[in-house]
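JOB MANIFEST
job_type = single_chain_structure
chain_count = 1
residues = 203
[input]
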Amino acid sequence: MNGDDGSLIGVLVDDHRRLGDLLVRLAARGPARGRLVGEMTDELLRHVVAEELYLYPAVREVVPEWAVDSTQHVDHDARVERILADLSVTKPDSHAFDVLITRLIVESRQALLHEEQEVFPLLAQHADGRLLADLGNMFQAFSDVAGVERTCGTGRVVRFHGLVLHRWEPDLGADAEPFADRLVAVQDGRSQRDPTPYLSLPA
């Protein structure tokens, strides 16, 4: 798929390429892998939040329900976040760390391929060019502005203009509130003020 057209699909393909480059760097053993895991965690969390804000609302809006399982990514994201949580408490020079890196690479690549081979073609088929262009601009603006901040321990929050959109607490494990539920709550809280399902920059 073309990653240079500025549409939502193009911007996402570019983001996938950047994440893929990080995965390649993670696959190479070296002293920087611990730092790279932190960088990968930040980038994946920002990417997951942006997709929940722009990609999947568009899929649910324009693609027929029978054509694609728009919830499959939730399982992918949950598995990736669990691996990232395990990596955050594993020594980078251990065999367990190598095993987790391999799992992270496999899960992440499967998720990216699923979107590029199944989700994006359907979105391109059913969405008009204006919507995809507008969402591409929103996705890029979010990626440029949203910050990933460290909290106590190895936790992180994804913040966008004062809104905490995602609070990642790896120590909670299975007790953590599902990410999709947290984001839906944020969107529901906005619904009375702004009927659009897409979060945009403040005027």
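[summary]
Strands lie at 147-150, 156-160, 163-168.
The mean pLDDT is 79.
exit_status = 0
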